[in-house]
Amino acid sequence: MIDFRNTNTLWSSILVETWQRLGLTTVVICPGSRSTPLTIAFAQNHKIEAIPVLDERSAAFFALGIAKKTGFPVAVVCTSGTAGANFFSAIIEAKESRIPLLILTADRPPELRECHAGQAIDQVKLYGNYPNWQTELAMPSAEIGMLNYLRQTAIHAWENSFFPVPGPVHINIPFRDPLAPIPELATEAFRSQFNTETFFDNCHFFVANIEGFWDKKSLQSERIMTEIFAQNYNKGIIIAGIAQPQFPETYCHAVAQISQTLGWPVLAEGLSPLRNYSQLNPYLISTYDLIIRNQEIAEKLTPDMVIQIGELPISKNLRTWLENTQPRRWIIDPSDRNFDPLHGKTSHLRTSVEALASVLAKTKFIEYNSSKEYLQLWCNTEAKIRKAIDRKMAGINNILEPKAAWLISQILPTATPIFIANSMPVRDVEFFWVPNNLNIQPFFNRGANGIDGTLSTALGIAYRNQSSVMLTGDLALLHDTNGFLLKNKFIGHLTIILINNNGGGIFEMLPIAKFDPPFEEFFATPQNINFSQLCATYDVEHEIVDSWEQLKQRLNPLPSSGIRVLELQTNRREDAKWRKDNLLKLSSS
After folding, report:
1. How far apart are the C-alpha atoms of 385 and 4, rounded to whole Å?
2. Which pTM was predicted?
3. What is the CA radius of gyration of the chain?
4. How does residue 164 score in pLDDT terms, banded at 50, 70 and 90?
5. Can you tell me the distance from the alpha carbon of 100 to that of 404, in angstroms, rounded to the nearest whole number?
6. Most confident of 261-265, 287-291, 346-350, 505-509
7. How far apart are the first and last CA of the chain?
8. How far apart are alpha carbons 55 and 36 in whole angstroms?
9. Which of 11, 149, 460, 492 is the most exposed place for a label (fewest CB within 10 A)?
């Protein structure tokens, strides 16, 4: 719908209509005056869902969560001034985790900048190098040449949110008064000169070819694969790191095909979908962090070659082992990113794991001389340690933080989306998440690994989705309590499993924990919050869980609507001591 009431409404409605025709379905809008024309344009376009959110940081992370779920850009709108600065942490996360976003910041016109007009800051390139692409639009104009420019800029922005790697795009949009849709005769007269379908014709071409844009340029070939295996590596492993594929079952099938073709074990990160499709891969290794803590076993398992799929797992022990042993590594990822923080003997193959599986299937002339004894040692050690972990966890009756991830992995409804917060939750998932066949969908913010926007991102993932779960510590939740303001607009269900150990549990695992003061006050930072009262403020359901049986009952089945908090109260120091005492013991089981 093109709004001809005045120049600003015409300009804004053409932007919105262009993106709607390209595929935009959702926009998150923060309140403000300077963004009025954009807000009106989005609100009037009934093919785009417009969601009002008060807090800009929460809004941006909520949009990030929706984009994670769908794989398509979500737009975020704010007014001029410091409002846009609150988007920054979500933009960083979007860049680092490769999530497409359209960041739209309204602005004062040039003559009202740097003259104390109010609510005006320098918004040009506000986010530095983090956007995939950024621009400031010209001032709105009701002239066909300028409208052609506007349409093509909008198309270019959309394309750049996908390529060469998905990520955020920033468009700064200045407006002069009137900001409200006050009619202008000249703009209304322009209506008779404007042919909507002709004007937007090339948007249809873009949509018709969008699937082609998803195909990344692959440098893979049979020649490269022949070269890789020409040296007859017989001790090879596949490391499947942090991954959030749009089609997880296809991804898991591809990894399984590579593993079984080569006869190599797959070390699967807890945040990878592989652990939730375990029936596909008989050589799945989930306890690698514990396995390589045993120096004798770790030495025997030293590989000649590693295929690393995407980013490395979180495990510090795994990274140290790879750094010390220096195996040849081939990193498989279609993006242009560098995924080797160890700076080892690596080569990046800019292709997808699905493409690699397809190539391997064709290169039947290659003889794979993988060691069956080596593979069997991995699998036998995995089975032994997995059995020891399961026996140990099953015997724990008190509420102990490490058991939460172990139990959750076995009791959630099929295909449940779960957002896993940073700090200790992601590490407990890596240590203890049990391989299962539940097709659970893990989500996370591991781009920049911060705790910003934890709740808002989880709500974005759960929005209009299957009933979802979030696993978080108390500090990560408290850092984003403004996310609860989304409650009145939220459609769907989110259960928050809150590990409340009154502070930063991860710091208990670090050397600084031995130095108190200042440890407790400046690192652990206990907040002493009554979460029952906090939830009551936002009219969010809250329940203290004091038994594992109670947790099982609350998680399966899940409710279909609303937000609730299930609080597990734990002892931070005892949890840390348990990990220190038991992780090494379990590795020697």
Report:
1. 69
2. 0.93
3. 26
4. confident
5. 32
6. 287-291
7. 67
8. 17
9. 149
